[in-house]
Specification:
The protein is α/β, with parallel strands linked by helices. The protein has 7 helices and 6 strands; from the N terminus they run βααβαβαβααββα. A 6-stranded parallel β-sheet has the order 3-4-2-1-5-6, sandwiched between helices. Strand 3, helix 4 and strand 4 form a beta-alpha-beta unit. It binds 3-methylbut-3-enyl trihydrogen diphosphate (2 copies) and magnesium ion. The site of one 3-methylbut-3-enyl trihydrogen diphosphate has 11 residues, from helix 1.
Length: 236
């Protein structure tokens, strides 16, 4: 096993939390049972991130394409997000977690949107872990949104740079992910942080999201420590 104490810890870990449905189906349960169990894994991932000294954790909870699921499943997911926020916010705040939401939160309705906004404000000064929740998030929509802002601001074409364009994305102020983990065995990005993942180390794990815990998180951090990041430069 790699000695993680002597290796860099990723500053920002992003996770595509996939496999809730398969977890439930394998047990003869309705999909919502998998989503419920998945919420427990969210708690474990946050604790593990804090324990490992990771400073930013982005969790993909609902994609802009997930609206295409049956209305009942979308309603279940919306309910679970609301329930999760209400039951976990005090604890998250206590742990020093700052919540940041990216994506089109207003599509979930006013109640959740307003509560998310309040949670962001309440935790705004916390700095132990920045927890970025991607809700109704799409990487392409994020890039198009940034392009629109650039045009609306009248930025001359020749003044548009990777740096100032990046500042118009929903992740402004958040460093790019160092490590992307996707559970469930699927090996794709599914329209997650397309711009921001340019140089992330990718890790696709067979474990289904509801089975993800501290051991899987530690193993991912150890795997990250073995990667050689080059950013296009010639290794010396
Ligand atoms: C991830 O689990 C949760 C969401 C995408 C909301 P899935 O619901 O995609 O589970 P699988 O991929 O069908 O197993
Ligand atoms: C990606 O999972 C989105 C989230 C985990 C929130 P999906 O299950 O929606 O992705 P596909 O459809 O397998 O690509
Ligand atoms: Mg899935």
């Amino acid at each position: 096993m790699a000695d993680i104490s002597s290796h860099p810890i990723p500053r920002h870990v992003a996770i595509i939390m996939d496999g809730n449905g398969r977890w439930a189906t394998a047990r003869g349960l309705p999909r919502v049972a998998g989503h419920r169990e998945g919420a427990k894994a969210v708690r474990r991932a946050i604790e593990a991130a804090i324990g490992a000294g990771v400073h930013y954790l982005t969790l993909f909870a609902f994609s802009s394409e997930n609206w295409a699921r049956p209305a009942e499943e979308v309603a279940d997911l919306t309910f679970l997000m609301k329930h999760y926020l209400r039951s976990e916010l005090a604890e998250l705040h206590e742990q020093g977690v700052r919540l940041v939401v990216i994506g089109e939160r207003e599509r979930f309705g006013d109640t959740l949107a307003v509560e998310l906004e309040a949670a962001e404000q309440k935790t705004a000064d916390n700095d132990r872990l920045v927890l970025i929740m991607a809700l109704s998030y799409g990487g392409r929509a994020d890039i198009v949104g940034a392009a629109r802002k650039a045009i609306a601001a009248g930025i001359p074409a020749e003044e548009l740079t990777e740096q100032n364009f990046g500042r118009l994305l929903s992740t402004d102020g958040i460093p790019d992910p160092d490590l992307l983990i996707r559970t469930s065995g699927e090996k794709r990005i599914s329209n997650f942080l397309l711009w921001q993942l340019a140089y992330a180390e990718l890790l696709f794990l067979p474990v289904l999201w509801p089975d993800f815990g501290a051991a899987e998180f530690s193993a991912a951090i150890e795997e990250y420590a073995t990667r050689e990041r080059r950013f296009g430069a010639r290794p010396v």
